[in-house]
Amino acid sequence: MSIGLTLLGLLETGPRHGYDLKRAYDEHFGQDRPLHYGQVYSTLSRLLRDGLVEVDGVEAGEGPERKRYAITASGVTDVRDWLVTPERPEPYLHSTLYTKVVLALMSGRSAQEVLDVQRGAHLETMRALTRRKLTGDLADQLICDHALFHLEADLRWLELTAARLDQLSEEVRR
Amino acid sequence: MTEPLLAAVDLHKTFGPTPALDGAGLRIWPGEVVAVMGPSGSGKSTLLHCLAGIIRPDSGTVSYQGTPLSTLSDVDRSELRRTEFGFVFQFGQLVPELTALENVALPLRLGGVRRREAESRAMEWLARLEVADVADKRPGETSGGQGQRVAVARALVTSPKVVFADEPTGALDSLNGERVMRLLVAAAKDTNAAVVLVTHEVRVAAYSDREVVVRDGKSTQVELVR
Amino acid sequence: MTVLRLRPRRRTWQWWIDLTLGVRLAVGGGRAGWGRLALTAIGVGLGVAVLLTATSVSHMLQARDDHGYGRAVPVSGNSAKVAGVDPVYAAMRSSEFDGSELDGVIVQKTGPKAPLPPGVDRLPNVGEILLSPALRQLLNSPAGELLRPRFPERVIGTVSEAGLTGPHELFFYVGVAKVAGQSGAAEVYEFGRPSEPRTLDGLLWLLIALGSAALLMPVVVFVATSTRLAAAARDRRLAALRLVGADGKQVRRIAAGEAFVGALVGLAVGVALFALGRAIVPLIDAKALRGGIFATDIRPEWTLAALIVVVVPVLAVVIAVFSLRRVMIEPLGVVRRARNQRRRLWWRLVPPVAGIALLASQRGRLGDALNQSSQLPVLAGIVLVLCSVPLVLPWLVERVVATLGGGSPAWQLAIRRLQLDSGTPARVVGGVAVVLVGGIALQTLLVQASTRYEPPGEKPPPVSVSMPAVALSQALALDGALRNVPATESVTPSITMLMKKVGGSEVTALHVGTCADLRQLTTIDQCHDGDVFVSAKPYSGAFIPAAGERVSFFANDPRQPVSVDWTMPAEVKATTALTTDMGLVYATPGALAGVTAAVADANAYLQPKANDANYVEYVRNALEPFGWSANAFSPTNAISSTFELIARVLLIGSVITLLLAAASLLVVALEQIRERRRALAVLAANGVRRSVLARSLLWQTAVPIAMAVIVALVVGVALGGMVLTVSNQPIVFDWATIALFVATAVIAVLASTACTLPALWRAANAEGLRDE
């Protein structure tokens, strides 16, 4: 899962300091694995180098914690493209999908769009699987069924999550 | 690009205080299977009913082969439903008093076909849908899967151009549901009939060629960036 | 834009296909379908049977009369002489036994070649008698013990059915020594008289009309209800047809086909019921039926019967199709229609207003005579008023129920259910209401038309004896015979003779009696046997023969031109009458010693000591020596017997119809429980006690029936009152019987509701939660 894009998405809502960013990430996405400060700063410097963020202001004091980072126009473009581009359908996408939905809501977009787009991609894959099932032998059918069910499970969870988060969108946006 | 077979533009429909359709639209081309998806209460069934001419929208047009349905009389719209359209609903659409064979023969009989011929054609379709063995049973005596396949046979017996299916597998288990979808799509492709498939299940929608999402009475066609 | 080209519409046989499809739907429904069909068939069948019976009534009455005419003794003069036939002197005699009519003919043969009345092989000689089968059976049974003294003759044969008016008629032919010269006697060369058409008087016709209409209305309601039974299932069925592409007219044709099947079967059932009734009726031996009814006499008027056979199925079909109009079969069924379609009142008021206007316009026209032009408006008025009940009731129930609310959970369930669909219970309960209306109106008419005899005070009613046109010697012997009747307190004889002036035309009446008897009639002071008294204060224009004047006694009957002359005695005393009869001359038997052959009418009143139902039979037996010329009657209700016959039939019919209405209520309730099975099961599973459900069912029935009873009372009383004014009778109501009717109706309804409880118990089980 791309940490850089996640941080970009968080920055889209407004400029933050480094420690602010880490805190926000941990709170929303880091339940399992909190982010190291080191990771944060190395990612930020990469983003800076790629022109996706810029330094907004500097606090008095030493060290990278004192810098305030803001997203650039190309950063915004990248986030947007990332949100509207579906992930390749495969099992266990939940963390990425979840991140996308939360970020979409934070930036004022509708979670439904993420959902619709992802569903489209999933359906394409599922169509291919279904076609294969119709002409295949029993082994093919079993494999396809398995994949279909998992893809469906992901999508259903996504639908439910999107619906839940839509309800809580007030709290998320900060 | 060829003309769409069935086109609905900017449909609005309100039942009581709730608006069911709020500018939804859809175009169907001959021979394609289109899935209409969306949460419950989104208006997808209403969209289907408007497309089939079963209910009239408050505003907007539905055209079949270029002719707006609102210009047709009740007799003509009934004739349309009988010959050009077929219907498969989730349940409750077969006549409980008639046997499966008579149910399938019904659209033909209503069109003036003699009983013997109507029933022989019906028998062919029952065989095709793999339910020839329940021909003499009443719908109440058949299982869910068998009943739905009889309904599909009835929908296809007049060789329609469009089959409307509203949650056709909703009351069925996975295996039966798959069987119904497989047979429905295969038969539709064989006769070059378009299928408008309303469903909220992705695995059912996977039988379609494309999907349209209906939400809050509006419809969106998702275009994937490839 | 391509033009939509649909295949051309069907050929004419499409109609046939639609109808046969309807037939197929009606017949192939499995158990539920058969049940519905059976109900419709029963309803239609009953209606047809009632109609056929109503059209048979007049023919039945006429046929009965014709039997009587066929064996009648000619009335005026003698029958035309026929060569080669030895005439018979015959006279009809009417009597009674134990409340049943007992009639016969006294015959006196003049030679071997006697004319034969129908049903008789050989006329009896003196001392012989022919009996009808019923009379023979009665005499041989213990019940006829009191009757046997009157029939000492030797039985030589039986009168067969051809000579009787009814299978249980008590009739006889008896040989008597001297018939010629008796009252009513005629010289008969050929029995029988040309039949005269019977004319119904206005009241009778009104009774028939009211009764038939009152019986038919519930049947119509029942048919309408049963064709709408399982309405939800039918609507789903028809919606499925619409979905598949049947247009509106096709659906109506299919519904018509469905209804037609029920109607046809119903027609067959009705004809079968009628035939069954026809076979059973002759077996009934009730006093009100006056000797019973022959099966062959029960024949419907053919033109009307043909009309019934055509109209009834058509009506059933029309009702079924008409009931579709409100439902507006859309392919999705009847879902999602705005519920604000409230019933309108104005068109429901048209029939009652029109009916009242029609009846009011005919007031007084159908008193005694049957005014031809009044028949149709009166009948139409009655039918319209009866129709108004099932029309107004749904509106009333809907409005009243909409204002109700609150209360216990059972009440709430019931009221909400009624608010959702008040039409069906109101319609069904309307059937009961119409029966009530008819019953109340009928009873009002019956009460008024029957005059009851109230015995004065506590004394048992007296028996009156009459012996018209006999010789004076016989008349005088009557008193002596009557004094031998046991348990008699007093005998009051009265003998009158008609006398006219010789050579003139003035007429007066003469009373004959002993001094003791005459003292009861006049203010006589001194009296000896042989005295004659005349009235001192005659009315103006009266003829009083003077002393010594010649007068002639004559008989009132033109067939007895015998007259005997007599001379008023020389001495005639004056007196005044105590009673206001036309007596002006009073004579003791001694004064008439020489004219014992003169014709006299003898009457007597006997006062029994105690109230004994058999007393009148003792009197009749005491009259046996007088041949059949004397009659005794106990004064009872002076009701016309035809009237009573029809009244009984109508009341029986009302009971049957009430049962029918209650049965239809039961059926509808059962069907509703079946339709709501799932909802009920869910309620029960949620912990709603079954007693609550039962009580809610009770309220659901009780509220409409309460309203129906109120409406029925009002309309029934109003209709009864109006019909009374039409027939010129005073308006009096028999509240006791009306209350009885109402109570019966309510009990019938509650009983049928109670019968649905087992079905409710079953539905409220968790069984109902299973998918079918």
UniProtKB/TrEMBL annotation, chain A:
Pfam families: PadR (PF03551). SUPFAM superfamilies: Winged helix' DNA-binding domain. Residues 7-77 form the Transcription regulator PadR N-terminal domain. This is PadR family transcriptional regulator. It comes from Kutzneria chonburiensis. The lineage of its organism: Bacteria, Bacillati, Actinomycetota, Actinomycetes, Pseudonocardiales.
